[in-house]
């Protein structure tokens, strides 16, 4: 699966962009502020319905414009060409179409275009809060377990209702029916997460051993409550504490995972560069698992790769992506940083003040097609 054509309108300084992308590596180089990250942001928005840079999509829409649009054509061996379009309005409106048919939920777009992002923001996966780590797990489960999304939404609705009842300080007896249903759904959700992680771990372990041969790297998952007890028992026992804080302290919404290196928390023993490489291992492991279990290759977006990974580690990550065979879009400042890794099938684009121009690879150099 790869994106063959991409059109962007009114997204930051990208007023009107049209590109033909290659099926392997696509490099975008130019100065800071030229629009390279905005290009990757456009693809992430059509995948997730949100930006990886800001929670306020109004900041993404070009000034003086009322809406942004992203359109692409996706090519796959099984389904041929699929046309996907999305519009986000400054007023908050959303509309999307797949092959001319209206799409009502963002999850439908996400399923069509699995996308992995490696950016300055995503490198906080291990050093940041547990919410991002839950998103990491749920991205993988969503793409391999068809029942996951509806189950997750049901669990969220029950959690909101239970928290509302806690704030009203209803009796334990009134909470019991909600606790019973919430616990049942949480158990099903946790089974899907645990099953996914059990299958994911061999891929992660192999990559971690290749990238960190001198260390012992371990991955551990925590479902959000002590599994020596049922969630129903935990909720019953902790009801007074939950009422005190006004929200549920235990459950799948508290799920988390940790990585330990030589027996210590990775974030306390690893350098910033090593943490970034561990995040790469996690993302690559998901991609390898997705391909081997479902035959899907996610699109990879690599933002500001020069500053986030040193030369040696950058080459190792790119080699893994070459082996995987995914389509990759990479932003960087100096094209010289990757000149030795360029292959004949790669495409190079120059980005300047919101304009994107194809460059042609000639020997060891790249030249503008207009030269």
UniProtKB/TrEMBL annotation:
PROSITE patterns tied to this protein: RECF_1 (PS00617)
Query: What is the documented function of this protein?
Result: The RecF protein is involved in DNA metabolism; it is required for DNA replication and normal SOS inducibility. RecF binds preferentially to single-stranded, linear DNA. It also seems to bind ATP.
| Family listed | Belongs to the RecF family.
Does the UniProt entry include the keyword Thylakoid? no
Where it mainly occurs, coarsely classed, is cytoplasm
Q: Which Pfam families match?
A: SMC_N
Return the protein name: DNA replication and repair protein RecF
Q: Where on the tree of life does the source sit, at the highest rank?
A: Bacteria
């Amino acid at each position: 699966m790869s994106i063959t054509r991409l059109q962007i309108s009114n997204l930051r300084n990208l007023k009107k962009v049209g590109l033909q992308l290659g099926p392997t590596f696509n490099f975008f180089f130019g100065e800071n502020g030229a629009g390279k990250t905005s290009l990757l942001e456009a693809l992430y928005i059509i995948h997730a319905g949100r930006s990886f840079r800001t929670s306020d999509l109004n900041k993404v829409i070009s000034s003086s414009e009322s809406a942004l649009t992203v359109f692409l054509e996706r090519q796959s061996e099984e389904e041929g060409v699929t046309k996907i379009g999305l519009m986000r309005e400054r007023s908050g409106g959303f509309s999307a179409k797949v092959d001319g048919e209206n799409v009502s939920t963002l999850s439908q777009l996400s399923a069509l275009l699995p996308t992995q992002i490696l950016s300055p923001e995503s490198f906080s996966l291990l050093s940041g809060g547990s919410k991002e780590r839950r998103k990491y797990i749920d991205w993988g489960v969503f793409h391999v377990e068809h029942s996951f999304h509806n189950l997750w939404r049901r669990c969220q609705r029950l959690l909101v209702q239970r928290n509302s009842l806690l704030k009203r300080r209803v009796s334990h007896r009134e909470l019991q029916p909600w606790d019973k249903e919430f616990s049942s759904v949480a158990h099903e959700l946790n089974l899907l997460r645990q099953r996914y992680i059990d299958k994911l771990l061999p891929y992660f372990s192999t990559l971690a051993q290749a990238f960190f041969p001198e260390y012992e790297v371990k991955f551990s998952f925590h479902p959000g409550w002590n599994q020596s007890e049922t969630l129903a028992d935990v909720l019953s026992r902790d009801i007074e504490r939950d009422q005190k804080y006004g929200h549920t302290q235990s459950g799948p919404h508290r799920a988390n995972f940790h990585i330990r290196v030589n027996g210590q928390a990775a974030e306390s023993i690893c350098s910033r560069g090593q943490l970034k490489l561990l995040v790469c291992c996690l993302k690559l492991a998901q991609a390898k698992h997705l391909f081997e279990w479902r035959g899907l290759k996610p699109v990879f977006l690599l933002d500001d790769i020069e500053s986030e990974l040193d030369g040696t580690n950058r080459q190792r990550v790119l080699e893994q992506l070459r082996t995987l065979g995914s389509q990759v879009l990479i932003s960087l400042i100096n094209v010289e940083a990757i000149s030795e890794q360029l292959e004949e099938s790669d495409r190079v684009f120059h980005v300047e003040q919101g304009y994107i121009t194809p460059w042609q690879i000639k020997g060891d150099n790249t030249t503008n097609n207009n030269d």
